[in-house]
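During the no-cost extension, the postdoctoral fellow (Dr. R.K.) reprocessed legacy sequence entries with the updated structure-token encoder. One reprocessed record is reproduced below for audit purposes.
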Amino acid sequence: MKTKLRKILFTAFAGAVFLSSCSPGDAPAEPQAAPTAEQGNFREKREQLVEHAIKIQELEDGDVIRAMREVPRHRFVPDDLQDMAYNDNALPIGYGQTISQPSLVGKMTELLELEPGDKVLEIGTGSGYQAAILAEMGYVEVYTIEIVPELAERAGNILDELGYTDVHIKQADGYYGWAEHAPFNTIIVTAAPDHLPAPLAEQLAEGGRMVIPIGPPGWYQTLWKFAKEGGELTAYNMGGVTFVPFTGEGIESAPTPTPESGQ
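Re-encoded structure tokens follow.
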């Protein structure tokens, strides 16, 4: 049965923060090896960043805030950008991809309304930072897909080094989701397709939530939150963002669905 898009509710949150796209080179420096103890200035900078994120994105979920305080973002960025790890902006990680703006990572995680036992699918592992935030919460099962083999391998290594060994990582085209582990209670997409991928809509569980940017590549997109009830999706407009484009054979070959078609 195809999921139907029931209606669009425009409820943009105030003060939406734009996520800057980057056009990095193809061979970034590798992230720094695990230190024996975290440098004190990193923790201080991270605390300042979290306080900033709470204010600018009006974060309220204590578990999300705690996870942001604990996950060392500097471990997920290339060596030459570590001094910028706790600035509130996206940073290039190579292969045309970025590590997302941390305050927006917090906001998107909060929009998932995670509950204990939820099975979460992330599309676009990238650096692994978003997966680490999800895993740090401690009560959800995390599945994540990355299309770039080098990034999937790197993210897996960093997550393992930091102790997030229960994160399930797959190198594949995220457009098709991860059918063998579906349905998922929540889905979070960290790259922007120009339409809602039908496989992801189908793999979202009844009562589930999906957070995804949708719009044309190279321009502003809209961040949508979808809720699935009775097999239908209700979409909430959460404001303007800018993400790197969704890539892969799936997005390139799929026909663009429209609300009127019911796809």
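Helices lie at 40-57, 62-70, 102-111, 129-136, 149-161, 198-203, 249-253. The CA atoms of residues 124 and 190 lie 5 Å apart. The remaining legacy entries will be reprocessed before the final report is submitted.
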